[in-house]
User: Which sequence fits this backbone?
């Protein structure tokens, strides 16, 4: 986990009271009353008596700087028979484990895989799960992240677009054109992000993933989740690509001017092993993550020097609306988005599959990547 030198919660995790979402919302509201936060309720009884729609947000101590997307958020109205918080927890966990639940993979199955990979007892992990009660605001969810290598640049995603915002204005839209009213709100949103980022309990050098919701003309704070530390790019990649280099579609994060050489995992042996027994490597230089195990990816992305996520404009749209694991984009040192077919031929990919399936070992290729945080070249070596 990435613990900055000025991070109060990293040094004092008990201050989160096992509920990072609720505890940090309380802190933000206490620090600056001008930053709106949805109403929270101290108990199930208070929430039911409030007369408003209630969102039940899952909480665990690891949510501050651990894996994203482990636990589900539900409407309280789905559980009309729960009279106590213990009954609500039991019913939430049952629904999460229900094979008919359309979100089941990111519920019970992902938690079990997370625990198995870390060697944590599943029941013990669930003992640490609790729920906080929030007023439901049916608005537009927004993520904001400061760029990890370009000062003054921000990544802003919502159902509207994936927007790069730099020095007071949007500089690039990857999906759609932003509605005018949304564009006008971006400077204030970034100002709020920076205000929170620089509160005394947070490390201002971290580039946190913050979640907000736009509702009735206001932008409400929802969540703070730690991401990369800021490391300024030291050069500009203003040369033409050399023989063998290709310019990638999207880059976040900078290398040194001479770049980095990495072994990139294309296929894992456990993808083809009977029983699919998986283990968590102590380290891994890079990966394509061409598999369907989000728990594995979540636990590995912070360790990687390089992440290559397949795709182009469609991929950016999926990041924007939340259908791709956002961690792959924001938590590795350098993240690149590019179509794997441009890097590996179908014939070579079939051979790599055989290495993983028949020889029972991870299949890798070696690449050299150079990125200034804005542009990147990739080359097979």
Assistant:
């Amino acid at each position: 986990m990435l613990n900055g030198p000025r991070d109060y919660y990293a040094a004092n995790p008990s201050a989160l009271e096992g509920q990072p979402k609720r505890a940090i919302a309380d802190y933000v509201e206490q620090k600056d009353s001008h930053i709106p936060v949805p109403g929270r309720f101290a108990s199930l009884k208070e929430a039911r008596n409030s007369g408003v729609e209630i969102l039940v947000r899952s909480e665990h101590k690891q949510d501050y700087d651990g894996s994203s997307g482990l636990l589900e958020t539900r409407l309280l109205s789905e559980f009309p028979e729960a009279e106590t918080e213990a009954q609500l927890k039991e019913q939430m966990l049952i629904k999460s484990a229900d094979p008919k639940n359309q979100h089941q993979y990111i519920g019970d199955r992902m938690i079990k895989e997370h625990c198995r990979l870390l060697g944590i007892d599943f029941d013990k992990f669930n003992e640490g799960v609790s729920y906080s009660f929030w007023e439901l605001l049916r608005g537009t969810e927004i993520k904001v992240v400061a760029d990890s290598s370009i000062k003054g640049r921000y990544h802003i995603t919502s159902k509207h677009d994936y927007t790069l915002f730099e020095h007071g204005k949007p500089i690039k839209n990857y999906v759609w054109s932003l509605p005018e009213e949304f564009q006008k709100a971006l400077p204030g949103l970034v100002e709020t992000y920076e205000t929170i980022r620089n509160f005394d309990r947070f490390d201002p050098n971290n580039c946190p993933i913050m979640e907000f919701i736009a509702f009735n003309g206001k932008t409400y704070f929802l969540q703070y989740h730690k991401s990369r530390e800021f490391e300024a790019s030291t050069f500009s990649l203003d040369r033409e690509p050399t023989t063998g280099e290709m310019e990638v579609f999207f880059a976040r994060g900078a290398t040194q001017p001479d770049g980095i050489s990495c072994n990139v995992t294309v296929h894992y042996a456990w993808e083809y092993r009977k029983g699919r027994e998986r283990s968590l490597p102590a380290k891994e230089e890079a990966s394509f993550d061409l598999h369907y195990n989000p728990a594995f990816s979540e636990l590995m992305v912070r360790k990687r020097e390089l992440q290559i996520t397949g795709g182009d404009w469609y991929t950016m749209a999926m990041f924007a609306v939340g259908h791709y694991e956002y961690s792959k984009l924001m938590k590795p040192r350098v993240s690149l988005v590019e179509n794997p077919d441009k890097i590996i031929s179908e014939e070579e990919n079939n051979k790599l599959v055989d290495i993983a399936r028949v020889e029972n070992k991870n299949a890798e290729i070696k690449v050299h990547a150079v990125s200034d945080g804005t542009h990147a070249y990739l080359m097979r070596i």
About this structure: The chain has a mean pLDDT of 92. The radius of gyration is 21 Å. The first strand starts at residue 40 and ends at 41.
